Amino acid sequence: MALKIRLTRVGTTHQPHYRVVVAEARSRRDGDPVEVIGTYDPRTKGKQVNLKLDRVDYWLSKGALPSDTLNSMIKKARRAVPAATA
What we know:
Structural class: alpha+beta
Strand content: 25-35%
Number of domains: 1
Radius of gyration: 13 Å
Strand order of the largest sheet: 4-3-2-1-5
Shape: flat
Helix content: 25-40%
CATH architecture: 2-Layer Sandwich
CATH class: Alpha Beta
Number of strands: 5
């Protein structure tokens, strides 16, 4: 069972909203995920991505591969965490 960390769309037409999910690689885009680990709202100003980084780390340790888009979002989220806690 190959797992991917990717986006699934839940928004309406012209109002996109996404969930960051862990899903099987061969399942459809909006299929049943294994776990929801965050959200992404491209229409908001400021913080657009909410990720549970502990769950991201867990799934990465289990062999889940992030999509290219999620890979960059995870990097940005990791850079934002130390600034918020300092």
